[in-house]
Amino acid sequence: MSISEKVRKMMAERAWIRRMFEEGIVLKQRYGEENVFDLSLGNPIMEPPAEFNRELKQLAEQPLSGGHRYMENAGYPETRAAVARQLSLETGIKFTVKDIIMTCGAAGALNVVLRTILNPGDEVIIFAPYFLEYLNYIEYHDGVARVLPSDEQFIPRLDVLKAAIGAKTRVVLVNSPNNPTGVVYAETLLQQLGKLLHEKEAQYGTQIFLVSDEAYRKIIYDKLRFQSPLHHHHQSIMVASHSKDLALPGERIGYIAVYPDCSQQEELINGLIFCNRTLGFVNAPALMQHVVRHLQHVTVSVDEYQKKRDFLYDHLIKMGYSVIKPQGAFYMFPESPLEDDVAFVRELQRWKVLTVPGRGFGAPGYFRISYCVDDQTLEGSLAGFRKAAEKFSLG
Ligand SMILES: Cc1ncc(COP(=O)(O)O)c(C=O)c1O
């Protein structure tokens, strides 16, 4: 066997998006790109904002001396200070340069965080449906994933959480705006969550980290304001990224922000920096750190995504699909008209529409649509959704 049993098992069990992607390639080869409507990947169609190219150009024309060398493993202090300044403005929490560590995206950040705080066998609570990589990351770092259900609106069920937290619980991991549902958590939920974590810490004499995955924090609709979970639990760590808000997923740039008053903050930060280095990231890409330093106040056009959401949501509802209207990110998670979500996704494939079965996100009976695609692809997908709806007598 050329690969470890562990990796082989993980690859076999959790390959839904990849599988759909590969089947999509075959379909595209057979029928032509323009005739296949690929809504399977969260790869934003938008180009980075104009300010990004301006900063890049400036760096190319007036290179910074030593600007491509190794640096502090936490990242350039100027970049971390810029992130801290903007985050403080947005959240009202007083972050400073010491609270920020630049990382290779939110994915890198999550791995660093879990490596740093988990002892073998520690439990990480996540809520289904979840971003499917969570299971891999938790397993890599010797944790045990405890998957809890959400309610029909895809909101974490606090009664279930209350019963599930025990002496082994080390992390509660939340993701809002959520992949795959697009749901944004309300402040009242976060308040109750914080209160519950305090009670449980007191009950068990433990520290429970609230880890907030905010990869989509700026992709938020309907004039909602993003509420930071960090207000409600001080033992908290945020992970964020510029993959979506600046449309730079290939550049691998994100950060960790630690709540300034969390206990043993210095040791925690030193641990995070150590793991950023020794997991092999070493530091976040230098060039991107120079660029995003000046772009903390910039975001791609969220209105464009909102238009896509409205377009698709309105059509799907008219066709009879049951969908919770997303308030952020760029995914929709409709109920599958067939109990077997894989069978339904295959049905959509027959009409050359590519989506991902809900079971890939721990939620069988649903399917995920990623609508960060161009308008032609969205428009082209409607015929397939309609045919499938007619076949299963929706509406
Ligand atoms: C919920 C969630 N967290 C983290 C990530 C990782 O993002 P990044 O590109 O910043 O590593 C993604 C990417 O799609 C995501 O959907």
What does this structure look like?
- The chain is α/β, with parallel strands linked by helices and 395 residues long.
- The chain has 13 helices and twelve strands.
- The chain has helices at 5-13, 16-31, 50-61, 77-91, 105-117, 133-140, 158-164, 187-204, 265-278, 286-292, 302-319, 341-350, 375-391, and strands spanning 37-38, 100-103, 123-128, 144-149, 169-175, 209-213, 236-241, 254-258, 331-332, 353-354, 356-357, 367-370.
- The strands form three sheets. The chain has a seven-stranded mixed beta sheet with strand order 2-8-7-6-5-3-4, sandwiched between helices. A three-stranded antiparallel beta sheet has the order 9-12-11. Strands 1-10 form a two-stranded parallel ribbon.
- β3 (123-128), α6 and β4 form a beta-alpha-beta unit.
- The N and C termini lie far apart (51 Å).
- The model has no long low-confidence stretch (mean pLDDT 95).
- The site of pyridoxal-5'-phosphate has 13 residues, from α5.
- Residues 42, 105-107, 131, 175, 179, 213, 215, 241, 243, 249, 254 line the site of pyridoxal-5'-phosphate.
Brief descriptors of the model:
single chain, alpha/beta, 395 residues, 13% strand, 3-stranded antiparallel sheet, 7-stranded mixed sheet, globular, 42% helix
**Amino-to-carboxy terminus distance:** 51 Å
Number of helices, counting only DSSP H or I runs of 4 residues or more:
13
Strands of the widest sheet, in order across it, are 2-8-7-6-5-3-4
Bound molecules: pyridoxal-5'-phosphate
Backbone structural class: alpha/beta
Largest sheet, if any? 7 strands, mixed
Helical fraction: 40-55%
State the shape: globular
Instruction: Tell me what portion of residues adopts beta-strand conformation.
Output: 5-15%
- What's the total number of strands? 12
Rg, rounded, reads 21 Å
What order do the SSEs take from the amino end to the carboxyl end, as H and E? HHEHHEHEHEHEHEEEHHHEHEEEH
Whole-number average pLDDT?
95
Low-confidence stretches: none
